[in-house]
Design goal:
single chain; about 190 residues; mainly beta; Jelly Rolls; 6-stranded mixed beta sheet; 2 helices; dTDP-4-dehydrorhamnose 3,5-epimerase activity
Length: about 190
């Protein structure tokens, strides 16, 4: 597996090998032992699958806080997304900074986003499917959202505010300034 470190501590881009022939390809997308070798040891307890019908759908920025903080291993299985993680660990050198990658069915890459980060994505085409593994179960009481286009974050989304297709819930998300003690590093 190809492992690329990104500017945010703990955030990784993983690309499993593909074995191709005239029939198509085979790829091992999850192997607990392989992930443990690179430090991802939390068990995955929930898988999620989303379909976005149109280009420009923005989902996020979301996280779960303790005691149900989630790490996510995200991949795009149809189409392509621009996937982003934002560090919300108070005390981190990269607090408030973001990193983004393009995930697609074609490149087969996966984005590891540990607990302590907001996550969101924008679809780059129609009928895009995203699947991700979570290290904790969904819990409404622990769920938090930050406005996807908060100016203080300066995220360079591949869609303008007026073109983005955003849920009413995400439109009403909190400003980044509300992230004070969601995750505190020792």
């Amino acid at each position: 597996m190809k492992v690329e470190t990104l500017p945010l501590d703990g955030v990784l881009l993983l690309t499993p090998p593909r074995f191709e022939d005239e029939r198509g390809f085979f790829s091992e997308t999850y192997n607990a032992a392989t992930l443990a070798e690179i430090g991802i040891t939390a068990p995955f307890v929930q898988d999620n699958h989303s379909l976005s019908r149109h280009r420009g759908v923005v989902r996020g920025l979301h996280c779960q806080v303790p005691p149900c903080a989630q790490g996510k291993l995200v991949r795009c299985t149809r189409g392509a997304i621009w996937d982003v993680a934002v560090d919300v660990r108070m005390g981190s050198r990269s607090f408030g900074q973001w990193a983004a990658v393009t995930l697609s069915a074609e490149n087969g890459s996966q984005f590891w986003i540990p607990p302590g980060f907001l996550h969101g994505f924008c679809t780059l085409g129609d009928d895009t499917e995203v699947q991700y593994k979570c290290t904790d179960l969904w819990d409404r009481a622990c769920e938090r959202s930050v406005r996807w286009n908060d100016e203080s974050l300066g995220i360079d989304w591949p869609v303008s505010d007026c073109q983005a297709i955003v849920s009413p819930r995400d439109e009403q998300a909190l400003p980044f300034s509300s992230v004070i003690d969601w995750f505190v590093l020792p």
